[in-house]
Automatic annotation (TrEMBL):
Membrane topology listed for this record: Lipid-anchor
Subcellular location as annotated: Cell membrane
Chain spans, region Disordered: 93-112
One of the record's GO cellular component terms: plasma membrane
Keywords assigned: Cell membrane, Lipoprotein, Membrane, Methylation, Palmitate, Prenylation
Gene3D superfamilies xref list: Phosphatidylinositol 3-kinase Catalytic Subunit, Chain A, domain 1
Record-given protein name: Ubiquitin-like protein
SUPFAM superfamilies linked to this entry: Ubiquitin-like
Pfam family, one: Rad60-SLD_2
Top-rank taxon: Eukaryota
Residues covered by the Ubiquitin-like domain: 10-88
InterPro entries (alphabetical): MUB (IPR017000), Ubiquitin-like_dom (IPR000626), Ubiquitin-like_domsf (IPR029071), UBL3-like (IPR040015), UBL3-like_ubiquitin_dom (IPR039540), UBL3_Ubl_met (IPR047977)
Transmembrane segments: none
Length: 117
């Protein structure tokens, strides 16, 4: 009986920039926005130094990509029963895929690991 219930929740380990981690449990229907709100409302005691002013600037990074707010855990096709590791960062806006100007300069310094020439 309990095995079927296992499919109804997704264990997620969130990692801060500082390296601190905290484990949470979410539903496959939870979106990135839902997760950010939940974490903000249940901010872990050990994370006091990293407290942010609003859940709206919390962003999730999964496998190197920012998750947009409406993406659900179910949509990520995560392996069932395994803890999924994501990074939690505070960032006002998501990087635009093709923005020019200052962002571009920022991008080149950020990482050259994956440039296709």
């Amino acid at each position: 009986h309990w095995i079927s219930r296992d499919l109804d929740f997704v264990p997620v380990r969130l990692i801060l920039v500082s390296g601190k981690t905290q484990d949470f449990t979410f539903s496959p229907n939870d979106s990135a926005t839902d997760i950010a709100k939940h974490v903000f409302d249940n901010w872990p005691a050990g994370w006091e130094d990293e407290k942010v002013s609003s859940s709206s600037i919390l962003r999730l990074i999964f496998q190197g990509r920012f998750l947009h707010g409406n993406v659900t855990l179910g949509a990520l096709k995560l392996p069932p029963g395994r803890t999924t590791v994501m990074h939690l960062v505070a960032r006002e806006t998501l990087p635009e895929p093709n923005s020019h100007g200052q962002r571009n300069r920022e991008k080149t310094t950020e990482s050259n690991c994956c440039l296709l020439l």
